[in-house]
Amino acid sequence: MVSSGPRDEPHRLGHDAFLDEVHSFEFWFQAVEGYLSDHPYGCVAGSDADEPEIAEPRRDGLITTLCNYCVGETAALEAASSMIAFAPNRRSKIFLATQVVDEARHLEVLLHRLGQLGVTDPEAEVDRRANRSLLAFKRRLLELVAARDWESAVFAQNVILEAMEFTVFSAHAQRADPITAQVLDGIIKDERRHMGFGENDIGRRLLEAPHIRARLATVRRELDPLVLDCFERTLEQIDVPRSERPDLGRRYLASVARLGFDS
Questions:
Q1: Residue among 199, 194, 200, 203 at smallest CA distance from 255
Q2: Sign, Cα dihedral of 233, 238, 239, 243
């Protein structure tokens, strides 16, 4: 897809025009076209034709990991779709609509990957293998959404959850089999965009209304133990050496610290 004019350099735009641009469906179309076109279920067409069988117990560990990725993506799908109703402005509603599409695609490609790995009922397998801490995170996120607490919901979803997923998926893609790596690479590109929305939205709101910092700090203290438990279990499942885990943990924490929330 070829474009010209301000869309090629959105940072040259004024503040409001910049937000209109980067939260638009048109911007989203251009962002995803390169890695969705000719990539059925997240992979280059035909690349899975001769995929070698993954030996046990690595296959079983991969299935558990992907099942928990499905839980996270379902949480974001359900939360983002419900948040559209109380988003504070048009551009936030439009961005969340693009995120809903992203999260639905992520869930679809992950379930498809589970089928490729021989799982006959992927959704039942997700229910069976789901991490309890991740399920608790999902429940709390949806409670914040049900309360129509915009700042807390964006913070939990687009900062905390997306930062965890971005860090874990990036580490996993470097170690995964070629097909899983392709699937994750496409998801990672979307997560970066979702994180950017969350950090920018919360950052602006903290400048305009510093009093919300205390409320968000409470949300973080509540969710951190759940996130860190998920983080540690997943890094173990994807065979990240113990020596590398602290650095990956710091990368996740840095995403939250950029908004001034220290450990």
A1: 199
A2: negative
Architecture of domain 55-257: Up-down Bundle (1.20)
CA atoms within 13 A on the CB side of 119: 24
Segments making up each domain of the chain, as ranges: 55-257
Residue-wise pLDDT tens digits, 192-209: 999 999 999 999 999 999
The encoded tokens of residue 107 equal 């869930």
Using left for φ > 0, alpha for ψ between -120 and 50, and beta otherwise, residue 59 falls in alpha
- 134 vs 72: CA distance, rounded Å: 7
Residues whose CB is less than 8 angstroms from the CB of residue 214 and which lie 6 or more positions away in sequence, other chains included: none
Task: Tell me if the pTM is above 0.70.
Answer: yes
How far is residue 51's CA from residue 247's CA, in Å, rounded to a whole number? 32
CB 113 within 8 A of CB 41: yes
Does the pLDDT of residue 230 top 80, yes or no? yes
Main-chain dihedrals φ then ψ at residue 204, nearest 5 degrees: -65, -40
**Nearest of 67, 251, 240 to residue 163 by alpha carbon:** 251
Residue located via tokens 């839980």: 71
Q: Considering only CA atoms, which of 102, 79, 94 is closest in space to residue 156? A: 79
